[in-house]
Amino acid sequence: MGRDDYLPLFETRSAKGRLLYWLYAVTVFLGVLSICVYRVRHFPEQELKRWAWIGVFMAELWYALYWLITQSVRYSPVYRYTFKDRLSRRYEEVLPGIDIFVCTADPVLEPPVMVINTVLTVMAYNYPPEKLNVYLSDDGGSEVMFYALLEASQFSKIWLPFCRKFKVEPRSPGIYFSSADEIPVDDVIFAKEWQTVKNLFQEMKERINEIMKLGRIPDELQKQHKGFREWELGASKRDHQTILEILIDGRDSKAMDVEGKRLPTLIYMAREKKPHYQHNFKAGAMNALIRVSSRISNSPIILNVDCDQYSNNSESVRDALCFFMDEEMGDNIAYVQYPQYSNNITKNDVYGNYLRIIVEVELPGADANGGPPYIGSGCFHRRDALSGKKHEKESKIDWKKENEIRVKESASTLEETKILAGCSYEENSQWGKEMGLKYGCPVEDILTGLSVQCRGWRSVFFNPERRGFLGVAPTSLLQSLVQHTRWSEGHIQIFLSKYCPLLYGHGKIPLQLQISYCCYNLWAANCLATLFYVIVPPLCLLKAITLFPQLSSPWVLPYAYVFLAKYSYSLGEFLWSGGTLKGWYNDQRMWLYKRLTSHLYGIYGTILRSLGFSKLSFQITSKVADDDVSLRYEQEIMEFGTVSSMFNILATIALLNLLTFLWIMARLIINPQTTDLDSSAVQIILSGLVMVINRPVYEGMFFRTDKGRMPSSITYQSLILATFACLLALY
Ligand SMILES: O=c1ccn([C@@H]2O[C@H](COP(=O)(O)OP(=O)(O)O[C@H]3O[C@H](CO)[C@@H](O)[C@H](O)[C@H]3O)[C@@H](O)[C@H]2O)c(=O)[nH]1
Ligand SMILES: [Mn+2]
């Protein structure tokens, strides 16, 4: 094909309305400068006040700096669009193979039925099935999971033709049949098949759940597959040899669905586990998958999904290929990252799990700067880039030859392949360092993506109209905070390590991209400023120390402007991205809570680990919840319920501001002369705002009677602590 008739396979558009954005950014910046001038010019004499003043000033400087950093992902977002018809016209015959890695680690927190639903969606892509190779990595080493996958391999023979014939979406049978409960009436053939397939699915689900309850595989079922023998020999979660079973071999032309069409390859893998070996969590699993798959299918493109993140769009593979296979711009693309959406987000998203602004605003912003980070799931990788190869300019891929070479390379026996998933295979190798996913970081995905970009590749963020992947978001406050603790800890570790984007990325990736990474790398660093801002001003209020300009002074204007401009912008951004007003209020609360707890714990964890007091751990986020917890989640009632020191912090701060507020109000009513309202106004407003945002905490402590309320022990402890702090400030 000549240059002239080259039609791109994808297109990039920039956001509009940039002038308004600059107006906002510049004026806020001027406001911040005025605040600094105020802080310097009004530097107090009195000793105690001086310390508090320095503290607020530092906090404000930090906020200003962080705000500046976050502008890097705002000023020029880009959006991508693909042309799948062109892809099909030019490449249908030479479409590359795709290796799909699904990771699971715990059959209780990640129920096998959910996992196989995800597996079925990625088997059912609208793509030549013999070119799809699905690998399930089971770090839980669970016999029930293996059984469920075996069931799925049978069910796929019916499910795949059904999806193809009726263009089913989404292709997760669990989701599809639960969202379309009514039998379709207008089409008789469809209605009949629909009912049959639904029944078959229902029966399979019941069988798996039955076995799950039983906790072992009955003897007659064990005969179905030789794979069960591994567990008979005593495989347990933490101690077993590599289990590698090909449940469907797509290379075998006899592997067919009920309509006689080929099937995707389906493989179960539980890498070897031995006590005393560091298994490196998901990163370890992924690296074993990269190696094992290289000997079985060796596809040039790898898709990675978490076990809850089912594919919601059967076109995603083709969409992703539009980027990799574009003749002009595809060569340097290492990965195509989809957003991580969840299908259990309620209207106002109490726990801010949607991460709306990150997904809708910041990732398109990062894309413009050189490419989004790799966020662990819903990501298509170029195998070479993920394995550690540098990007070389002028290296055009001939997709036809590519397939032939790869197939040749992959010929080896199953026993040979198993060795690659063994514990000792990585000893003295570059795996986890220069090859594959990097080890030693709670956000292995981010670190890996960064180093891929530093090897000369770029990445692309793709968010099609029909969502690509949907997962399960945490349904309780604590889970959400714990998940965020892992993330913020991982991020700050990257920042403090030799991989700090500003150093490691220097000269390798654009400066804007280095700064974009810092938005997240520095999450945890926000905690000190925020803790200071919600604790010290109220205490100072009790001590009659004023830290802000008088209401009647013009110096209050920059404060008012920065506050109003920043929050109206943030609200505007939120509503524009499809959120609700209440959703925004919830989101603000969650960010406050994350700063006060997750980020603090993230820093604490990092210190402990760097001193050698604790080892890296990975707390898996539960994808299931008790019925009453789920119900409260649906009703958007905040879930406390368990005893956690995180709640102590939140409750104490909420109470501290409440007590201060009440005390000042009482004083104003009883004896107005003793309080200088003009000088204290800003601090009173600040405490008022903290109270407004903390409404669910007060309700949880004082008004609720359900199981999800704040445990009374926490209420009492926090009450004592807050009262004590107030008394200390008063006397
Ligand atoms: O030892 C382990 C632990 C976890 N996992 C899998 O890793 C995935 C992510 O775990 P999850 O508990 O769901 O954590 P999240 O916080 O939801 O995951 C996000 O953040 C992680 C990094 O903290 C990334 O690894 C994930 O891809 C990303 O979706 C799941 O599929 C797990 O089965 C393993 O395979 N082995
Ligand atoms: Mn998850």
From TrEMBL:
Transmembrane regions listed in the UniProt entry: 20-38, 50-69, 520-542, 647-669, 681-698, 710-730
Amino acids binding Mn(2+): K282, D306
Annotated GO CC locations: endomembrane system
Keyword line: Cell wall biogenesis/degradation, Glycosyltransferase, Membrane, Transferase, Transmembrane, Transmembrane helix
Molecular function, one GO term: glycosyltransferase activity
Topology with respect to the bilayer: Multi-pass membrane protein
Matching SUPFAM superfamilies: Nucleotide-diphospho-sugar transferases (SSF53448)
Binding-site list for UDP-alpha-D-glucose: E110, D139
One GO process term, biological-process aspect: cell wall organization
Family under the similarity heading: Belongs to the glycosyltransferase 2 family. Plant cellulose synthase-like E subfamily.
Name of the protein in question: Cellulose synthase-like protein E1
Phylogenetic placement of the source organism: Eukaryota, Viridiplantae, Streptophyta, Embryophyta, Tracheophyta
